[in-house]
Amino acid sequence: MAGFECLPGFRDFYPEACAQRNFLFRVWTLAARRFGFQEYDIPTLEPLELLTEKSGPEIVEQLFHFTDKGGREVALRPELTPSLARMVGSQANSLKRPIKWFNIAENFRYEKPQKGRLRSHYQFNADVFGEPGEGADCEIIALCVETLLATGLGAKDFRLRLSDRSLWIDFLAALGHEGEAALGILGVIDKMERLPQEAVLEKLEPWFGDAREDFLAQVKTLVSIRELEGLKRFFGSIVSNAALRERLDARLESWERLLNDLDALGVSPWIHIDLGIVRGLAYYTGYVFEVFAIDGGGNYVGRALAGGGRYDHLVGRLGFPEMPAVGFGMGDVMLGQLLLERGKMPPLIDAPDCFLVVGGPAERSIALKAAQTLRAAGYRVEYPLKPVGFGKQFKLAGQSGARLALIFGEEERAAGTAKLRNLQSGEEQSVAMEQLLDAVAEA
Amino acid sequence: MAGFECLPGFRDFYPEACAQRNFLFRVWTLAARRFGFQEYDIPTLEPLELLTEKSGPEIVEQLFHFTDKGGREVALRPELTPSLARMVGSQANSLKRPIKWFNIAENFRYEKPQKGRLRSHYQFNADVFGEPGEGADCEIIALCVETLLATGLGAKDFRLRLSDRSLWIDFLAALGHEGEAALGILGVIDKMERLPQEAVLEKLEPWFGDAREDFLAQVKTLVSIRELEGLKRFFGSIVSNAALRERLDARLESWERLLNDLDALGVSPWIHIDLGIVRGLAYYTGYVFEVFAIDGGGNYVGRALAGGGRYDHLVGRLGFPEMPAVGFGMGDVMLGQLLLERGKMPPLIDAPDCFLVVGGPAERSIALKAAQTLRAAGYRVEYPLKPVGFGKQFKLAGQSGARLALIFGEEERAAGTAKLRNLQSGEEQSVAMEQLLDAVAEA
Q1: Is A4's pLDDT higher than 90?
Q2: Total beta-carbon pairs less than 8 A apart between chain A and chain B
Q3: Which of A183, A212, A208 is nearest to A198 (CA)?
Q4: Less packed terminus of chain A by CB within 10 Å, N or C?
Q5: Which residues fall within 8 angstroms of residue B49, CB to CB, at 6 or more apart?
Q6: Nearest one of B123, B51, B8, B43 to A108, comparing CA atoms
Q7: A48 contacts in chain B (CB < 8 Å)
Q8: So what's the ipTM on this one?
Q9: Is the pLDDT of residue A235 over 90?
Q10: Intrachain domains A15-341 and A354-442 with the same fold
Q11: How many CB atoms are closer than 10 A to CB A279?
Q12: How would you classify the pairing of strands A158-164 and B428-432?
């Protein structure tokens, strides 16, 4: 019936799908806690202005937005970062730094639903505020890798492509392109992997004219570098003034410390230097990265599993004191698909510990008292909600997946006992009512 | 700055507030699981038609609703039940009954924010589908009480007021009022507690004319009954035809079984028979209940903590096969306030297990390896994200609330050890690197 289905791009989560989603939530939460991140949360609905201030008016195209009954321009959050920057910025003076926070929330975008991309998805976000050095980038990158490993993925399942907007900006500055021009050029680099060479050259023409082929050749050299030594050679050969040289040298030292620390944290095998990643959004200011699944041949498949980087100016741009920041987001859709494809999604095991088989009304009170006792002790207990014959109840007990059945018949009532049956082994024992909890614990 | 605050009636959850909210989520989840309920989830945004079909066009007044970019009339869900009925109804033939499901979700209403009532709140919902007998009502009511007890509330903190729309409908039928008239009268009864007697009498006039004072006297007698025997006497004295008499007698037997089972499940002390509760919504069809906090004098305080009842026709009304249903909702706002007022909200303890105190760059790699080892074993580990003097680090370790500090200095590096300090007792020991995990586990 029209109107009585989900909206396109939204999902009903039946118990199995819900358990799979919650498996991700649990892995995300536990990983963030091991790294010392605290959980926070933000509103689902936000003022439109907060979102356009971060991302520009173009973002409105992709939003679920409307005017509320009080005349406010509002939107369903498409991402977490602007709200997070508000929360941190408005308490900048009282929060102890570094601020290490994480969140799991639903985000909304009005776009054509397609494989790996829905109108609503859940995202894990972790961010560090208040620490400008690469130590914070390191912690964020290590958490991103460790989180994916905690899902059960391994060395051959994914790779984190590590890049640096700061090196790119300096490289373009050495070629005479700064400010808006540099951002425009990075916008082209961002699309390079998906466009034919001719189209890339045409887009570069306004800035490079006849030198566009030379520039593209340089870019191709840069994005093929996989070792720190290679980056050092590339940037060592760039003609630059003294200030720029000093900045480049300092940056390459930061790279060296970052890679050393990532190695010490055990995540090096997943880190691939890859300056081909520049992240489209203008607000990134330093290290940036994206994580992709890889196939058996080591090729990237599908959309990014996660992405993030440093964004040191966002808090200031919202009118709060400047505060350095670095973080990442990881969605549930691509990751869930990957885990299913690779057989890493754990099966839904959702069975009671104990199924109560209940005789007549006289036995029912005894059985229900037992249910309360067992539930109070933390056991998951089910019983038929209406009178059902014994045979049917044993069938229900079996279907429920319970390991134990507790049988309350006339005979047992007369003896002040219950019969405890192990539904796997078929073993049975009589248990006095006051021994029930111990017997179930030991069964 | 305008636009950079939360919308009115919405909340930013800083870590402490988030931990308090998550405490409720955890209690809710564990209680539902002990009772054998499975978790599901529904979309935040739904077709407007689904919501108006359940609640009538008046609901639109209270909704955040708009036309999406595809021309669809959509709304932020104000409650869960219509979506739940869709999910259950559309899989009615494949889901094993009874269907026992729970969910925790954010709901949205556009109304004036006030104490205990916001524009966004979180609600725990538990429902049983497919079982028409009072066994399902019993399970739902017991879960509602046990959930509140699991928060730490006790016998003197709340009461569940149990009523029955079906008895009301039969009572009104005996007086000659059925269908729309009966629903209209119940609408007045619903507001009786909050209105002056004059206003109530005026509202009853269209149906009862000069007999309105007699009717109101009868109603007052009915709503003052607190014992099953009283209900039996009251309904025994009602003049009715044979069919109605049979229905009333059967219903009072159902009441007897329900109260017996609630007693066996140990929740009787919280159950108060109170026909004054009729629940405004027309869709309830049988037992209904609301839970209120009580003060030291046993008086009800504030808005309901939870409420629910049986709604056997909703699934059918959405065009799916008829399916009996009973459930309840419990919000986070009133309950959170009550727990804070009564000192039952657990404090946020959010400290690392281990804080690493790190010497120079040579020690950093060793410390970070230790961090990885400990985190992989499930410990929560923090270390300074940038080089910091030893003295400052010990101060940070103390402030972090960590129980243990692991010290990686020059001396320790030379000896291949770390120093493990218990920050509570001040005790220290040297630990070989390969013994680290055991030493931390035993410390």
Answers
A1: no
A2: 248
A3: A212
A4: N
A5: A2, A3, A4, B73
A6: B43
A7: 3
A8: 0.94
A9: yes
A10: no
A11: 19
A12: unpaired
Q: Is the CB of residue A94 less than 8 Å from the CB of residue A31?
A: no
Query: With the C-alpha atoms ordered B226, B228, B229, B234, is the resulting torsion angle positive or negative?
Result: positive
SS3 at position A427: coil
Per DSSP, the three-state class of A234 is helix
Query: Residue A72 pLDDT > 70, yes or no?
Result: yes
In CATH terms, is domain B15-341 a member of 3.30.930.10?
yes
Which tokens in the block code for residue B186? 């119940």
Q: Would the pLDDT of A1 be above 60?
A: no
3-state secondary structure of B144: helix
A6-50 residue pLDDT tens: 999 999 999 999 999 999 999 999 999 999 999 999 999 999 999
Torsion angle (degrees, nearest 10) of CA A221, A224, A228, A232:
0
Percent of chain A with pLDDT over 70: 99
Interchain contact A74–B (C-beta under 8 A): yes
User: Which DSSP category does B364 fall into?
Assistant: H
Rounded to the nearest angstrom, the gap between the alpha carbon of residue A68 and the centroid of all alpha carbons in its chain is 30
Which CATH number is A354-442 given? 3.40.50.800
Q: Do A380 and B90 touch (CB under 8 A)?
A: no
Nearest CA in chain A to B91: A14
Question: What residues of chain B lie within 8 A of the CB of A57, using their CB?
Answer: none
How many CB atoms neighbour CB B203 within 10 A?
18
Q: What CA–CA distance (Å, rounded) separates A377 from A380?
A: 9
Please tell me whether the peptide bond between A347 and the residue prior to it is cis, using omega within 30 degrees of 0: no
Is the CB of residue B141 less than 8 Å from the CB of residue B262?
A: yes
CA distance A32 to A29: 5
Tell me whether residues B108 and A44 touch, CB distance under 8 A.
Answer: yes
- Gap between the Cα atoms of B126 and B102, Å rounded: 4
The H-or-E segment that residue B75 falls in is strand B73-76
Q: What share of chain A is helix, strand, coil (3-state, %, to 5)?
A: 45, 20, 30
Check CB contact under 8 Å for B14 and A90. no
Which of A66-80, B237-251, B272-286 has maximum average pLDDT?
A66-80
Owner of token pair 């029930």: A436
Q: Where are the beta strands (DSSP E) in A133-279?
A: 158-164, 271-273
Domain locations in chain B as residue ranges: 15-341, 354-442
Q: Which residues make Cβ contacts (< 8 Å) with residue A279, sequence separation at least 6?
A: A163, A165, A190, A288, A290, A307, A309
DSSP readout, A285-309?
A: -SEEEEEEEE-TTS-EEEEEEEEEE
d(CA B77, CA A6): 12
**At A196, is the secondary structure helix, strand, or coil?**
coil
What is the 8-class DSSP label of residue A96? P
Tell whether the torsion through CA atoms of B340, B341, B344 and B349 is positive or negative: positive
Statement: residue B345 has pLDDT above 60: yes
Residues near B127 by Cβ (< 8 Å), separated by ≥ 6?
B81, B84, B99, B100, B101, B102, B140, B325, B326, B327, B328
Taking each helix axis from N to C terminus, what angle separates B242-264 and B228-236, rounded to the nearest 10 degrees?
Answer: 180
Strand partners of residue B189: none
Given this model, what pLDDT does residue B174 score? 94
pLDDT reading at A405 higher than 60: yes
Q: Report residue A202 as tokens.
A: 């045409």
Q: B interface mutation test: which of A28, A34, A37, A81 has the most B CBs within 10 A? A: A34
Confidence of residue A3 (pLDDT cuts 50, 70, 90): very low
Residue A66, pLDDT above cutoff 80: yes
pLDDT of amino acid B117 = 86
Cα-Cα-Cα-Cα dihedral of B290, B295, B299, B301, to 10°? -50
